[in-house]
């Protein structure tokens, strides 16, 4: 039996799922407490709504990078069945190169935008908006790394036929 070439990816997947689970739990808990305090105690805690919103942004993009790594975001199996076997290989290479280019743009301009808003603070939590905007380049960087690993597994692995 052959050992997996990238064993760290398996463990990083567990960490990522734990992080997303924690983020979703924070979202649910903060919205529950916000609804409870607003309708039962007639008090509105504004920072809870902002916490849920910012955590949702991070959880959605982080979860998107997990879905991308698992390969559930871009599948065209029906179209591949109708064309010759060589075309999906070429399309796979072209698609991955285009994805790397797009993710590179997201990483570069995402970091630029994140540092551009460094002096802005959120109204209720009073945290720097940089931390919210960093969700885009961080998720894009995770997707970029996943694409590189996918290319390595698909086209350069030892047991490839």
Question: What is this entry, summarized?
Answer:
The chain has helices at 7-39, 46-70, 77-81, 86-116, 129-133, 135-156. By secondary structure, the chain is mainly α. Helix 1 packs antiparallel against helix 2 (46-70).
Report the sheet with the most strands, covering strand number, pairing sense and barrel closure.
Answer: none
Helicity level: over 70%
SS element count, helices: 6
Amount of beta strand? under 5%
Number of strands: 0
> How would you spell out the order of helices and strands?
HHHHHH
Taking all Cα atoms into account, the compactness measure Rg is: 20 Å
Structural class assignment: mainly alpha
- What is the overall silhouette? elongated
Which stretches are poorly predicted, pLDDT < 50 over at least 5 residues? none
Give the termini separation: 17 Å
Mean model confidence by pLDDT? 85
Task: Tell me the domain tally.
Answer: 1
Detailed description of the structure:
It is a single chain. This protein is mainly alpha-helical. It has one domain. It is 75% helix and 0% strand. It contains 6 helices and no strands. The longest helix is centred in the first third of the chain and has 33 residues. The relative contact order is 0.12.
Write the layout of secondary structure elements.
Blueprint: H1 7-39, H2 46-70, H3 77-81, H4 86-116, H5 129-133, H6 135-156
What characteristics describe this protein?
single chain; mainly alpha; 161 residues
């Amino acid at each position: 039996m052959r050992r997996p070439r990238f064993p760290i990816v398996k463990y990083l997947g567990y960490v990522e799922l734990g992080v997303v689970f924690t983020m979703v739990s924070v979202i649910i808990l903060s919205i529950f407490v916000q609804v409870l305090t607003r309708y039962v105690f007639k008090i509105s805690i504004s920072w809870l709504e902002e916490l849920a919103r910012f955590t949702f942004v991070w959880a959605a993009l982080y979860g998107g990078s997990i879905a991308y790594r698992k390969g559930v975001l871009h599948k065209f199996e029906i179209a591949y069945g109708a064309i010759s076997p060589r075309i999906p290989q070429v399309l796979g290479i072209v698609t991955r190169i285009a994805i790397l280019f797009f993710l590179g743009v997201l990483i570069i301009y995402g970091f630029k935008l994140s540092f551009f808003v460094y002096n802005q603070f959120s109204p209720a939590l009073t945290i720097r908006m940089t931390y919210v905007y960093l969700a885009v380049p961080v998720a894009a960087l995770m997707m970029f790394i996943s694409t590189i690993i996918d290319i390595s597994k698909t086209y350069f692995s030892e047991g490839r036929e």
